[in-house]
Structures are given as structure tokens and as C-alpha cells.
Amino acid sequence: LDNAFRFVLLNMDSIVRDDPYIFIYCFLGLDWTDPSLSHMVRLAYDILPDMYSENLRQFYILHPSAAFRMSIWSFWAWMSQSLWDKIVYVKSLDELCWLVHPGNPADRFRLHRCFPQIVQCADAQYVGKEMPVSFGVPLKHLSDDMGIDFTDKTTGRTYHGLPPVLVFICEVMEREGADEDFTGLFGAAADSVYRIVECMDHGRPLEHDVPM
User: Pairing between strand 87-90 and 21-26?
Assistant: First the structure.
């Protein structure tokens, strides 16, 4: 959690320094009653420069549960009124994209494509639609619907419109050294392959005990 918090702050600083921005939080079931999480939010509120709040146009919260809203209400005592008024609860990705880009269908489509597959799956479940999957789908459809731009840190080369599942599994394979035993990939146990497919289709991180 600490590493995630640092990652957000380090990447946000250059964004919020000079220009107005929006912040989108996708609620995926995190337990906000955890005291350590509440403490971290309060710490961020106290130490971040005023520009974070001043340049914030809107704070969208996607798929909030009733319990999550109750947790947010506990921040009322120390949160400024101006920041509180910028919080907007949103029920679906389609609604969120419309709020951000009300007059531009092309921008709405591009924004929708930016959300990780785990968020898109949660949205489909939330609104009662068929969940998006990766396996068994034509590559062009994956690239058009969920393609992302990826820059290889080793070569500096940028690839456009890659399916997120392809990027993710290649990064895991490289990190785990799976390329050193490439032929062994074709002799993997079926249950391990099915677990990988399930994780990839739902956008979830791979479990640590899944062999690569």
C-alpha cells in the first residue's frame, strides 16, 4: 500500500503542478475501515501542497458501495468544503465517460479504453452486462476496444494499441525468467493454464504460486 501511494504521488506531481485535472478512483472492494488506510489518506491531505486541491476540477468515484460512502463520510470532520463539493459518485463507466467528455463521443471511447480490464469487468458485473474477455477474441477487436500504448524500457521503443493482457503476461514472463525455459511452456499442467486464463480474462494479477 505504501508503494502504491508513493507511485501515485510521484506520477501526479507533474500533472497537477500547473494545470486543472480530474481524479478518478475506481472502487474495487478495498476495506476503507482499515485504520492504516484512513491514516494514510489524512497524511496525504495534510502534507500535499495546496495546488493538489486548488487545481482539482472533479473527484469521481466509480462503483461506490454503501459501506464505502459511510467511510468517506468519516472524513467530513477534517476535509475542506471545497474539496468535499468536488466529489461525484458514478455508477458506471459509460456515465463517467459522458461526464468527462459530454460532447465528444470519440474522446469518450478513448477514455473508456484507458481503464484496466479489471475495472471494465467490475463495471460489466455492476451494470449487468456481459463481461469483456481476452482469450478467444480476435486480436484486432482487443486492440480496438482495450489497446494501450506501451514503451519498452529496455529498447525505448513504443508500441501502439497492444492488448493489455499481452503486455502483462510478457512482463510477468520476463520477470520470472520464463523465456529461459521456453520449451517448458508447452508442457505446463492444464490447471495452471486455466488459472492463468481466468486471471487474464478478469484483469486480476497472477497468483504467486502459478508457475511460469
Answer: unpaired
pLDDT average per 10 residues of sequence, the chain (212 residues): 72 81 88 76 79 89 89 81 91 95 91 87 88 80 81 85 80 72 70 78 69 57
Cβ contacts of 4 within 8 Å, gap of 6 or more: none
Residue 90 host element (H or E): strand 87-90
Residue 111 half-sphere exposure toward CB, CA atoms < 13 A: 17
DSSP designation for 142:
H
Residue 96 has a CB neighbour count (10 Å cut-off) of: 24
Element (H, E) at 190: helix 190-202
CA gap 101, 24 in Å, rounded: 14
What's the confidence (pLDDT) of residue 212? 56
Q: What phi, psi does 138 have (nearest 5°)?
A: -55, 140
Backbone angles phi, psi at 137, to 5 degrees: -105, 135
Residue-level pLDDT at 211? 58
